[in-house]
Write a structure and sequence with these properties.
By secondary structure, the chain is mostly helical. It is built from four helices and no strands. α1 packs across α2 and α2 crosses α3. The protein is globular, with a radius of gyration of 15 Å.
Length: about 90
């Protein structure tokens, strides 16, 4: 564990988002760091795909930089819905 300094403005955003999403400030910051890391490593992925990837990484032992960079080794584990399908 380490200490990361952030600007007052980012800290305020973290405080608001953590309250809205029922996370600690540290948990919210870690979530944003994970999403941002994956977005930079894989700019072709959208937010929904990144969230699915986070779940897959967690199910298979947790996120590391080397595992996050090796996306092609992960198999889809969540059902996907056809966007043309009508919601039930």
């Amino acid at each position: 564990m380490g200490i990361v300094k952030v600007s007052d403005g980012i800290h305020e955003c973290l405080r608001i988002a953590s309250g809205a999403l029922c996370r600690s400030i540290n948990a919210q910051a870690e979530h944003w760091l994970r999403v941002g890391m994956l977005a930079e490593l894989h700019p072709e992925l959208g937010h929904k795909d990144i969230c699915r990837l986070l779940i897959q990484l967690e199910q298979s032992g947790g996120i590391t930089l080397s595992r996050a960079a090796a996306l092609e080794t992960l198999e889809p584990t969540l059902p996907t819905r056809d966007p043309q399908e009508e919601p039930s």
